[in-house]
Structures are given as structure tokens and as C-alpha cells.
Design brief:
The chain has 327 residues and is an alpha/beta fold. It contains 13 helices and twelve strands. Strands 1, 2, 3, 4, 5, 8, 9, 10, 11 and 12 form a ten-stranded parallel beta sheet that branches. Strands 6-7 form a two-stranded antiparallel ribbon. Strand 9, helix 7 and strand 10 form a beta-alpha-beta unit. Helix 1 packs parallel to helix 13.
Length: 327
């Protein structure tokens, strides 16, 4: 498996410094998310900090920019990285799109497929005309005067549900997991859907990237408590009902959703943490990471962030980067 990393920083300066250290430790790709920062601006900052590692978005929101803007940003980032950029896209949730960004959520499957088709057409240099069921583009006659580094930039898709996962298998260069994704879920739910979506493609054409939230501490109990904030953040989302039910955590998920809707703290018992987060001592985390062998092509390690103080996140991040060096 390839080992990659999603750095954290209170500032862009700290983020890029962590990216540089992760590259020095051996991380092959540096991934940046989109939530409290712009994924493409963060990727541009990281591009100036690393010299060998790839730079990817995990993920940029697919519907909050026009496909044309996303394609142009991808071309610029590919130039900044010398052809090492990976465009990771995700649909997000209905609430995020409609309430946070005021963009449509109707027909997300078709919208994501057509968004990728438009992006690839723009990156390839045209023709810049597209008439889909959701997306439209009419920029005929437009010629970008800048020579691209590549006319095909890898597009990875984040997917949790079966239909989105099959779509990733059918059209993407890689699949990106949710930050919580156990080896059992990968083996029994994700890989069969990816295979069903391949539709004649070779499995080797698809990079299966599992995102693994990581919490390392000499005290395993402290590592689990640090990870609890991440579980609480996601457990309050009703959309993930089937995911938690698969792990025999339906009751805990229902309680978390009810608490979130009531504005109360989400209580996360240890039995929610152990199957879904790499938490423990360095040796315990390395052993749990090894369980993805033969299932994932790439692992993206990220520090547990939600609910933790900056100094706590920094200590954890340093331990993760140290672990990458030993791996």
C-alpha cells in the first residue's frame, strides 16, 4: 500500500510545514480537504512546499464551483505541482450543498457524472460544448492560451453509498473513502460495488484510497478519547445510518442523531471508536493499518481533529508523521 497524508494546521504556514515534514517522512501524496478552508487554495499552498509528493484534494466539493472553474483550477494546480496534482471530488450532503452553499442537490448522481465529463473536456482542450441532463457548457471558440502540463488529470471520487461507489468504479481514476472506513466495510460493501461499476475496466485502473483517521498516544485510552470527537462529528449525520448499522452501531448512531438535533452533546462510547478509527499506541496503530493490506491500494492518514485543542492535534500529528517514517 502507498502511505499518504492529510496534514493539519491552524494557519496555512503550519499546514504547509506539516506537509513538508510528511513528504520527508515518506508520504507519497499530500491531501487537503474542503470545509473550513478552500481545497484548491490549500492545494496551491502545499504545492509550493513539497517537491516530490503528489498533491490532491480530498475532497473539493463538486457542485459549489462550476465545472469550468474546477477544471481551470485543476490545470493551474497541475502546473504548480509539475504534473503531480490529483483532483478529488465529492458530492457532499444535501444540507451542506443547499444550506451552506445555496446550490442545487437534485439528481446528484447524474450531476457528478456530468461534472466529471465537463471537467475532463476542458482539461483536454475541448471542444467546449456539452449538453447534458444537468450540466451545460457552451464555450465554443474559446481557446486557453496556456499550454497544459497534462491533458488528462486524474479524477478521484469520494463515495459512501452504493450508487456513488459504482459510479466511481465506472468513471474515476480513484475512489476516496469516508474518513471512517473499516477493513470489513471496505471488503464487504465497497469493493463489490466498485467491481460492479468497473464495466469492463481493469481493477488496476482504479486507485482504492482508504481514509484512516488516526490517533496515536502512549496511553491507548487517551488515544480513543481524542478520536471521540471525530466519531461525534459524523455520528450526528443521519445520512450515515446504513454505514453505522453495518458496524452494529445503529442504536448508538440513532442516539447521536437525536442528541445533535436536540442541541445536546453527542456521547461516543469506546465500542464506536475501535472499529472505525486507528487509535492506540504506535504499534497498535501500525497493526490496525496492516489490516487494509490486500484491500486498499493507498491509505490516507489524517489526525483526529474535531473536539481537540490545537496543542493536542499537534502532538498527534507529530506522532503520525513519525509513524509514516517507520513504515
Amino acid at each position: 500500500m502507498r502511505i499518504t497524508y492529510g496534514p493539519w494546521g491552524e494557519s496555512l504556514e503550519e499546514l504547509t510545514a506539516a506537509a513538508r515534514k510528511a513528504e520527508e517522512a515518506g508520504a507519497e501524496v499530500i491531501w487537503v480537504p474542503e470545509l473550513h478552508r478552500s481545497a484548491t487554495v490549500s492545494a496551491a499552498a502545499v504545492a509550493g512546499a513539497v517537491t516530490r509528493a503528489g498533491v490532491g484534494t480530498a475532497v473539493a466539493l463538486a457542485f459549489t464551483r462550476s465545472p469550468m472553474v474546477t477544471a481551470l483550477e485543476a490545470l493551474d494546480l497541475d502546473e504548480l505541482t509539475g504534473g503531480r496534482f490529483i483532483l478529488g471530488l465529492g458530492a457532499g450532503t444535501r444540507r451542506l450543498n443547499e444550506n451552506w452553499h445555496n446550490v442545487p442537490w437534485n439528481r446528484p448522481l447524474a450531476r457528478l457524472r456530468e461534472t466529471v465529463e465537463v471537467i475532463r473536456a476542458v482539461v483536454a482542450g475541448g471542444p467546449l460544448a456539452y449538453d447534458g441532463s444537468v450540466q451545460r457548457l457552451d464555450a465554443r471558440g474559446l481557446r486557453r492560451p496556456h499550454e497544459p502540463v497534462r491533458t488528462r488529470i486524474p479524477v478521484y471520487l469520494a463515495a459512501v453509498g452504493p450508487q456513488m461507489t459504482r459510479l466511481a468504479g465506472r468513471i474515476a481514476d480513484g475512489w476516496l473513502s469516508h474518513e471512517l472506513s473499516s477493513p470489513a466495510y471496505l471488503r464487504e460493501q465497497v469493493l463489490p460495488n466498485l467491481s460492479a461499476g468497473l464495466d469492463g475496466r481493469e481493477r488496476a485502473e482504479l486507485d482504492v484510497v482508504v481514509s484512516a483517521c488516526c490517533s496515536i498516544d502512549p496511553d491507548p485510552a487517551q488515544a480513543r478519547r481524542r478520536a471521540a470527537g471525530v466519531l461525534g462529528f459524523y455520528a450526528g449525520v443521519a445520512t450515515y445510518k446504513d454505514f453505522f448499522a453495518f458496524h452494529d452501531l445503529a442504536a448508538e448512531h440513532a442516539a447521536a442523531v437525536a442528541a445533535f438535533r436536540a442541541g445536546e452533546p453527542v456521547v461516543v462510547p469506546d465500542r464506536m471508536i475501535d472499529p472505525l478509527v486507528l487509535a492506540g499506541t504506535p504499534d497498535q496503530v501500525a497493526e490496525r493499518l496492516a489490516r487494509y493490506e490486500g484491500l486498499a491500494d493507498t491509505v490516507k492518514l489524517t489526525p483526529a481533529v474535531y473536539g481537540n485543542a490545537p496543542e493536542e492535534i499537534r502532538r498527534n500529528q507529530a506522532r503520525i508523521i513519525e509513524l509514516i517514517g517507520t513504515l
